[in-house]
Amino acid sequence: HTSYSYMFRIYKRHLDFTDARYSPLTRMLWKHCCHDGQVSRFSFESFRSSVSESEFWSCVGGKERYEKLGKATVASVTLDDLPAKWKRNVAPDRRQRLTD
Prior knowledge:
This protein is mostly helical. It is built from six helices and no strands. The chain is 55% helix and 0% strand.
């Protein structure tokens, strides 16, 4: 999940949002991240900060789906709102394990 997180950050920093390659690259990377079950808090936050609002909604399954959960803004969607399948291969946060 860390590799995906850093790739989102690299795309954001080094590619222009107006570059025709930007959107397809971020979509492809998000798709692979979800498929691999590597959506962690870090990768999700990196992805969210790297895409436009419309791109975000498109990649997470549509705004309507989350509005039914009372999530009307991009910022209101949390990792817990995403499908478990997308997070299945992420180890629990070490900080959380230390406090349990």
